[in-house]
Write a structure and sequence with these properties.
Helix content: 40-55%
Strand order of the largest sheet: 4-3-5-6-7-13
Strand content: 15-25%
CATH architecture of the largest domain: 3-Layer(aba) Sandwich
Order of helices and strands: HHHEEHEHEHEHEEHEHEHEHEEHEEH
CATH class of the largest domain: Alpha Beta
Number of strands: 14
Distance between the termini: 52 Å
Number of domains: 3
CATH superfamily of the largest domain: Response regulator
CATH topology of the largest domain: Rossmann fold
Number of helices: 13
Length: 386
Amino acid sequence: MSESSGKKRRREPVVALAIANDLRKQLATGRLVPGKKLSRRVELQKIYDASPVTIQSAMDRLIAEGLIETHGRAGTFVAGNPSLVTNIALVFHATRHDPYHWNRFYEALVVSAAAWSEEPQRRFLSYYCSVTGDTTPESQRFLADMRALRFGGVVHVTGMLPDHLLVSQQEFMMPFVAVTTSGGRTKAPAVVELSYDSFLDRAVEYLAQRGRKRIGILVDPVMWVDGEETAFERAAARYGVEARVHHRQLVSATVPVCARAAAHVLMRLPSEDRPDGLIVADDNLGPHAMHGLLDAGAQIGTHLDVVMHANFPSQSEFGDLPVTRLGFDSREVLGSAVRVIDCWRESGIPGGRAKVEAVFEGETVEGAAFLEQAEISRQLVDSNSH
């Protein structure tokens, strides 16, 4: 064997990998769609200036990954459900064992992702990265999977968005969607926005319809600085209720136990100054807030009505207490992200935006059967994470 032929043989695996990666990128960006016939091998040899052996090696890689299928003399086609189309990365900025940053919204998304059964077919791959954006084994696994194009889109769930994620997204031209709240700042090219304005508006409207005149609120200060205070004031003015400044209690969701004292203090005000309607604007505060109300002897439904933020699917923790739950359906959040990713892929135009409105518990479609399936999915996710 000559020296030149030896170098060529050593070069072939590298070139085959590069060709396979290029075809994966075409799948990821929608230039190659499920069912599309690939160019003939002879044409691919010309396109990539590669030998038949190298082209076959690249094809073998993609066949092994389930991305393409051979149909004899009919040719080679993109698989009907290649992983780059069906797989979506669901990236959290905290781990499930981080008591300060992991929350109930994230948990609802994990459950809904595990129980996903809607069309189009999707499989969500969850990654739990550091809240600081530091390099961790989990973030390295995510970046390695992105480089290997094991998924065809990314949904990053609120919180810090490290620059290196966007650099990688731009390198691989992969649809990248961030889930944020109203007014949330993000560098992500596409956004699914949780409309906290709609939550506040519907909560105030409900309490006003119940005849309540003085509305208090327990809210995480992180949420309050993004314009929700103005939205709350607008809603109060719209429905003719009072929103007194000292009825607005800022309680960090990372230290939710403080909601107990805040709710208790509100109920110890003189009767003419006491709120007769209360919005608990973060479900992580909910149980502690209810303990505070009960500590103060407040009778829910008599002394005051309570609108409790919730993330669906979830079951109420408040027994027979007449607490009204209002919040965001995690299935609609995921569905909106999928639609943005699909539109990006189909149009070839980066970006996109969707808004998810708040809904009352009775407006969701969970029912007993779904909650049972969601609980099974949650247990499976828990067992797989250990």
